[in-house]
Write a structure and sequence with these properties.
It is a single chain. With 480 residues, this protein is an alpha+beta fold. It has two domains: 3-128 and 320-337 and 458-478, no CATH class; 179-318 and 338-454, DD-peptidase/beta-lactamase superfamily (Beta-lactamase, 3-Layer(aba) Sandwich). The protein is 26% helix and 21% strand. The protein has helices at 3-23, 132-144, 185-194, 230-235, 239-261, 283-291, 300-312, 346-361, 429-441, and strands at 39-41, 77-79, 89-90, 95-96, 105-111, 124-131, 150-155, 162-167, 179-180, 204-207, 226-229, 276-277, 296-298, 314-315, 321-325, 341-342, 384-392, 397-406, 413-421, 442-443, 446-447, 462-465, 474-478. The strands form eight sheets. A five-stranded antiparallel β-sheet has the order 8-7-19-18-17, with helices on both faces. Strands 4-5-6-15 form a four-stranded antiparallel β-sheet. The chain has a three-stranded antiparallel β-sheet with strand order 2-23-3. β4 and β5 (105-111) form a beta hairpin. α3 crosses α5. It is globular and about 75 Å long. It starts with a helix and ends with a strand. The relative contact order is 0.19.
C-alpha cells in the first residue's frame, strides 16, 4: 500500500474511534495529552493562520478551552517526534509551528465537544501556540538540573504568544496559583521611584551594614554609610535601599497604583489566579513590601508578563491557544483579545533594561551567564534580568525566581523561571533561564539575536493528520 493509502486508512480509523468517543457522551476533560494527535504543515501552504482571531465565521468556542494549559507532560516522560516507534506511547502531538515547513512543530490536542453545546460538531481540535521543540529542550534542561518543582514560561513580548510553558510537578506546585513574589517586586518599585525622580543618575541610596538585613531603624536614610546608585541597588537586590524608596519616596498609594498598572492585582491569564498584596499598617510593613520581604504574591505568568513589560513598556495579554477547529474544519470564534496597555514609556523601559543588564553581568545572576572559563554564555547578546528569593509555604520551601528580557537592546524573548527548593537543590533559576536562552539564541556554539526567529512569529495552518509511529501515537523517551 502506498504512503498516501496508509494515511487514508489511518485517517478513517481515527475518525471512527473519535465517533465512538463522542457517542459515549464524554465531557470536556481536564488538561491532559490523552487525546492528542500529530499534525504536520503542508509545505505548499503559505497561508498564515488567523492567529487569535475573534472574527472566525464559526460559532463561539467553549471558553473553558482557553484555560487549558499544555503543561500536562508528566515529569517522567519526555515526548519526541524523531525517535523510532515501538517505545512507550504518549498523547503529545505536533504540528507546523510557522508557515515555514521546516520550522519547529507545536502542540495540538483533540477534545470532545461539551455536552451542553449541541451547536458544536466535535471533536474539537485545540491548536496551542507553544513550540514543541523549545518545550522539549526546556524539559530536558529542567531534568538535567534535577528540578523537582519548577515552572518555565517563555513569551514573545510583542505578541504575547506563549512559546513554552513547562511545569515539572503541576499537581503539588500548580502553575496557576500565586506565590511569594520576593525581590521581583523591586522591578515594580524601581518603576515607581523613577516617576518621582527626574534623572536616574540622581537617584541614590545610603545604607548601613548588610544590604539584605532590614530592621525598623533601617527604613530611614542614615546620615552615614555605604552609598550606591539605583542601578547598583537593583543589580545587588539591596533590601535596605528598596525599603527606603517605598517608605520615603513612593508611599503606600504610589506602590499600590504601580502594582495595579503592572497588572498584579488582576488575573495573569485565563484560569490563573490574580495577584495578592498586603501593604500592612506600618512604615516597616511598607518597607518590607517594597523590597519583597513580605506582602506580595504573584503567579509565574505574572512574572513572565513583567519581563515582557520590560521589553516594550506594555502589558501584553499572554495566549497559548491559537485556534479551535471543529470536526468540519471550521474555525470557532474566540473571546476578543484584550488590548495591550501602556505601563511605562518606551524610554523608561529602555532605561530599566539597561539597569537590569547589570544583574546578569555584575549582580546577583552574574555567574549564570558565563561559562566555566568566564566567557559570556550568549556571546555578545546581553540579558536584562532580575533575581528573587524568599521562603514560603504551600508548598514549603525557598521560592527562587528569575525573569529576563533578551536581547536587552531590542528584546524578542521574555522568560520567567521559578523553583521551590528543598534542603537539596542543584541549579539556580538564573542558570535554568540562561540554558533556555542559549537554546533560543545559540546554535552550534554561535549566538545571534535572529536565531530567536525560529520560535517567534506567526503560526502556520496545520494540514491533514499524520501519525508519527505505527501505533498512531507519538513515541516518547522515559527519564528513568
Amino acid at each position: 500500500m502506498s504512503g498516501r493509502g496508509r494515511l487514508t486508512v489511518c485517517s478513517l480509523l481515527l475518525f471512527f474511534v473519535l465517533g465512538v468517543v463522542l457517542a459515549a457522551g464524554l465531557p470536556v476533560q481536564a488538561p491532559s495529552f490523552d487525546n492528542v494527535f500529530a499534525f504536520s504543515g503542508d509545505p505548499s501552504d503559505t497561508t498564515l493562520a488567523t492567529s487569535r482571531s475573534a472574527d472566525a465565521p464559526g460559532p463561539q468556542a467553549p471558553e473553558p478551552l482557553y484555560s487549558r494549559l499544555p503543561v500536562g507532560i508528566n515529569n517522567s516522560v519526555y515526548a519526541y517526534a524523531d525517535e523510532p516507534s515501538g517505545q512507550r506511547s504518549s498523547g503529545v502531538a505536533f504540528s507546523s509551528s510557522t508557515s515555514d515547513p521546516f520550522a519547529s512543530p507545536r502542540l495540538v490536542e483533540m477534545v470532545p465537544a461539551p455536552m451542553d453545546r449541541p451547536d458544536l460538531n466535535g471533536p474539537l481540535r485545540v491548536e496551542y501556540s507553544v513550540d514543541s521543540e523549545l518545550t522539549r529542550s526546556v524539559f530536558d534542561i529542567l531534568k538535567k538540573g534535577r528540578v523537582e518543582r519548577g515552572h518555565v514560561i517563555v513569551l514573545d513580548p510583542e505578541s504575547g504568544r506563549v512559546l513554552a510553558y513547562a511545569s515539572t510537578d503541576p499537581e503539588t506546585f500548580p502553575p496557576t496559583r500565586a506565590y511569594p513574589a520576593a525581590s521581583l517586586i523591586k522591578v515594580v518599585t524601581t518603576a515607581a521611584v523613577l516617576e518621582t525622580s527626574a534623572n536616574v543618575r540622581d537617584t541614590r541610596c545610603r545604607y548601613r551594614g548588610s544590604p539584605y538585613r532590614l530592621t525598623r531603624s533601617r527604613i530611614k536614610k542614615p546620615k552615614s554609610g555605604h552609598e550606591v546608585s539605583l542601578e547598583v541597588a537593583l543589580a545587588t537586590s539591596n533590601n535596605q535601599c528598596f525599603a527606603q524608596f517605598a517608605v520615603n519616596d513612593i508611599g503606600s498609594l504610589g506602590m499600590l497604583d504601580t502594582i495595579d498598572r503592572f497588572g498584579w492585582l488582576s488575573q495573569s491569564g485565563a484560569g490563573h489566579d490574580a495577584g495578592a498584596v498586603d501593604l500592612g499598617g506600618s512604615e516597616y510593613d511598607l518597607g518590607r513590601f517594597g523590597c519583597g520581604l513580605a506582602g506580595c504574591r504573584i503567579t509565574p505568568l505574572h512574572a513572565a508578563r513583567l519581563a515582557a513589560t520590560m521589553a516594550t513598556g506594555l502589558s501584553v495579554e499572554p495566549w497559548w491557544v491559537d485556534r479551535v477547529v471543529d470536526a468540519d474544519g471550521q474555525e470557532l470564534k474566540r473571546p476578543k483579545p484584550i488590548k495591550s496597555k501602556r505601563v511605562i514609556s518606551p524610554e523608561r523601559a529602555d532605561e530599566m533594561r539597561l539597569m537590569m543588564v547589570r544583574t546578569t553581568t555584575r549582580g546577583t545572576a552574574r555567574g549564570a551567564f558565563r561559562d566555566r572559563r568566564g566567557r559570556p554564555l550568549l556571546g555578545s547578546i546581553q540579558v536584562a534580568g532580575k533575581t528573587g528569593n524568599l521562603s514560603g509555604r504551600e508548598p514549603k520551601g525557598r521560592y527562587e525566581w528569575f525573569i529576563a528580557a533578551a536581547p536587552a537592546q531590542d528584546p524578542t524573548i521574555a522568560i520567567a523561571v521559578v523553583q521551590v527548593h528543598g534542603h537539596l537543590w542543584w541549579k539556580k533559576s538564573s542558570e535554568i533561564a540562561a540554558s533556555v536562552l542559549s537554546e533560543v539564541f545559540c546554535e552550534r556554539q554561535q549566538c545571534a539575536p535572529e536565531l530567536a526567529n525560529r520560535f517567534t512569529g506567526k503560526l502556520g495552518s496545520p494540514a491533514s493528520p499524520v501519525f508519527l509511529s505505527e501505533n498512531g501515537r507519538v513515541p516518547v523517551r522515559s527519564s528513568d
